[in-house]
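<purpose> Linking amino acid order to shape
<body> The protein record starts here
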Amino acid sequence: MRIPAHSVCTAIRDDIVAGVHERGGRLTEELLARRYGVSRVPVREALRTLEAEGFVVTRRHAGACVAEPTEQEAADLLEMRRLLEPLGASRAAQRRTDAHLKVLRGLVRLGQERARQGNSDDLRSLGGWFHETLAQASGSPALTSLLTQLRHKIAWMYAVEGPPDPVAYWAEHGAIVDAVARGDGERARALTALHTEQANAGHRLRFGSGAERAVRADRVRNSQHPVNMTGLRH
């Protein structure tokens, strides 16, 4: 069975984000093909895609390597998200479907329930699904794709602290959905802008000045493990 290149791309990207492939490390087609149980053809295609996304760079005499983003590049990602997520929420208020609203409300209910229970692992996943669904509700594939790439890169470059008050944090999600449901684009934009700004402050850079260190996002602004190919996202 031929495994599609986009599935191999997802597997390599996930491993880069998880730190399995270290920053600056070489990514040889032969070793990657062996790791993921595929031929070199889908690996080659996946590396081209990941280079276009900024996860991989091609170096003379070394070939494909994991990118080594700078602190400024990392800070730019948070700034881009601060600008684009409110835009997505505003568009969602005008373009969302009943199906989008149903999923968003369901995620808010689950998030509020898990917040009261103090389940931080579930909250992280639910938050990701919430923002992915909100982006999809914008009705703009280009914007959705950009926000998805931003989330992947931010997860790669930053460690995220949980919100100090998870219950209030999920109440903010609920208020955003209410504005989207009413078709109030300006309120959806304003609420999402505030929510994103507060969330950005909880991000700590995983690297800096050539060494691993924690840096608050607001200051920045002014090994191997097995891969189950059957579980890849399509």
About this structure: Confidence is low (pLDDT under 50) at residues 209-234. The chain has ten helices and four strands.
